Amino acid sequence: MIKLQIIGNLGKDCIVKEVNGQNVINFSVVHSERYKDKQGVQKERATWVECAYWTDKTGVVPYLTKGKTIYAEGYPEAEAYMNKDNQAAATLRMRVQTIQLVGGVGEGQQQQNTSGSSNYNAPAPAYIPAANIPMASTAASVASDAADDLPF
After folding, report:
1. Is 116 helix (H, G, I), strand (E, B) or coil?
2. What pLDDT shows up at residue 88?
3. Is-contact 90 81, C-beta < 8 A?
4. How many angstroms separate the Cα of 78 from the Cα of each of 5, 37, 40, 43, 91?
5. Distances in Å between the alpha carbon of 19 and those of 16, 119, 148?
6. Residues 8-19: b if buried by 16+ CB within 10 A, e if exposed
7. pLDDT band (50, 70, 90) for residue 59
8. What is the 3-state composition of the chain as percent helix, strand, coil, each rounded to the nearest 5?
9. CATH number of the domain bearing residue 127
10. More confident residue, 139 or 44
11. Per-residue model confidence (pLDDT) at position 141
């Protein structure tokens, strides 16, 4: 089994189609990478992935707009073809299983997880670095909290 995980920006608004009675959300994700070549010239390389998300949960569609940063995982599919200049070309596609909007509230986005829940308006969880949590007091509080949660 091969699994593909990508984080990137949507290249355009998603498109929803119905195929044989099932909904498919089509979108493209781009990941841009900046680097310097051997001569020290700044370059940029973009990798595009065409995505198809077969789902009955289309409530995420209004959030899949151009420029949004997403995380998606699924199975890769490659397709070779001849382009309009009669040159051999290839396309990387992904059959999406999980999609999640990423970015903080400061970016005007909320975290969206469509892997199995339909809670599309859940706030993004706070990130607390592990170095800021005192271990001794945490262990003691967990033990006392566990005793309070007993049903008898």
Report:
1. coil
2. 92
3. yes
4. 15, 28, 33, 26, 6
5. 10, 25, 52
6. bebeeebeeeee
7. confident
8. 15, 45, 35
9. 2.40.50.140
10. 44
11. 41
Give the model's pLDDT for residue 31. 85
Instruction: Provide the pairing of β-strand 22-36 with 15-19.
Output: antiparallel
The backbone torsions φ and ψ at residue 120, rounded to the nearest 5 degrees and listed phi first, read: -85, -10
What domain range includes position 112? 4-148
- The set of residues, in sequence order, having a beta carbon less than 8 Å from that of 15 and lying 6+ positions away, is 25, 26, 27
The domain total for the chain is 1
**pTM for this entry:** 0.61
**90 contacts 77 by C-beta, under 8 angstroms:** no
pLDDT at residue number 119: 36
CA gap 69, 144 in Å, rounded: 40
Which amino acid is it at 140? A
Name the token pair of 111.
Answer: 């975290």
